[in-house]
Amino acid sequence: MHLHILGICGTFMGGIALLARALGHQVSGSDANVYPPMSTQLEQAGIKLMEGFEAEQLQPAPDVVVVGNAMSRGNPAVEYMLDQGLVYTSGPQWLAEHVLQDRWVLAVAGTHGKTSTSSLLAWILQEAGLEPGFLIGGVPENFGVSARLGNPPFFVVEADEYDTAFFDKRSKFVHYRSRTLVLNNLEFDHADIFDDLAMIQRQFHHLVRTVPAQGLIICPSRDQALDEVIGMGAWTPIERFDPTEETDWHGVNATPDGQAFDVVCDNKPQGRVEWDLLGQHNLANALAAIAAARHAGVPPSVSIAALSSFKNVKRRMELRGEVTGIRVYDDFAHHPTAIETTLDGLRKRVGEARIIALLEPRSNTMKQDIHTGRLSGSLEAADRILLFAPQDLQWDAAAVMAPLGDRAEVFQTTQGMVERVKAMAEPGDHVLVMSNGGFEAIHQRLLDALQ
């Protein structure tokens, strides 16, 4: 069977492409922007990539067109697909029908931490000898790929609340029929498709409705938005986790940077985690992953041992290089909460060393005037802040950054940011680049400029 994927270089759709290829299908795809790490994965798997969206890319007609959620009416390929009556489906629907049938699905949902927690869970199951399949919205370093079929029955999926496709406005995660469900946290996000938090909560409750009575829901002990979702009705056992507060799963004796902590379950010590990750948020992610793995039959002691060899996901505080004692990191943070927790973790690791933070407000939500009231506060832990202000930004960048005083600067070009960092950076500095896109390859350009 020949699948053509529209929007193939998104992390989710790229994962669908890898799974289809592993099933023996012929796979091609097109996208407007092609950049690593997804493009590299796809090319290595023998998948043909095409730039742009043209009708000719669907000639001769594939057996099925898998449509990414970034596609909309008016797109030339979409219009041709509809006019010609081609067979089409969404990525989540294809995944549910061709991969997840008869699998024990372990799904990780929430506003933050989905990719990291999914990666942790997949690695734990791998180290337990279970050879899980997975589809993750990033590239876990332990595996080197964002998706694989694995062996039945276990399959880990990052469960995104974003809508499914232009013809299916339900959240992606309602397709997955999870047996083990992690709900990491819940805040307002995706302002381009949700009007308010209540709309997102309704989708999360649709997800809760799909978990069987013999399944398990794992959620934090202190998250009002998720408590309200559970309050709408739950028919599944629930276990709670918290980095510090005593509950079903919690941490004690943690180091300030979160690189070591003891795991406690049901008031019984389970062992000590010592790993390379930073911050309270990752401590919480670890507890959720250990709890989910136990539901799949993995003893906590095995999970704790697995975490010591866990390598973080690409673009999650990823050290891209070091030049003359200046370290450049890449991080996916693009929401005030994620920005604040990322900076907090780095600050606790580097102490008084200078942090230079570069931020691209790229997501649809960040471009709108949704989170501007929290943005400057989320950057407080940085010593210098360089904000990229694209032309389609819908707020006054200088005014929003004003509370940070002369620590913050606004730039209209990434080249200006590169030159500024080159001029100010000194040995011992930590340069943190935060964006959920390619950011015009600024990471490598910084390293080149600092040589």
CATH class of the largest domain: Alpha Beta
The overall pLDDT average reads 92
CATH architecture of the largest domain: 3-Layer(aba) Sandwich
Percent helix, as a range, is 25-40%
CATH superfamily of the largest domain: Mur-like, catalytic domain
Please give the number of β-strands: 23
Please summarize the sheet with the most strands. Answer: 10 strands, mixed
The coarse silhouette is: globular
Q: How many distinct helices?
A: 15
Proportion of strand residues = 15-25%
Radius of gyration: 22 Å
CATH topological fold name of the largest domain: UDP-N-acetylmuramoyl-L-alanine:D-glutamate ligase
The unreliable regions are none
Distance between the termini: 49 Å
Counting helices, strands and paired strands, the structural category is: alpha/beta
Strand order, main sheet: write it out.
Answer: 8-7-9-6-12-13-14-15-16-17
The figure for the number of domains is 3
EC number: 6.3.2.45
Domain Mur ligase C-terminal: 315-437
Protein name: UDP-N-acetylmuramate--L-alanyl-gamma-D-glutamyl-meso-2,6-diaminoheptandioate ligase
Pfam families: Mur_ligase, Mur_ligase_C, Mur_ligase_M
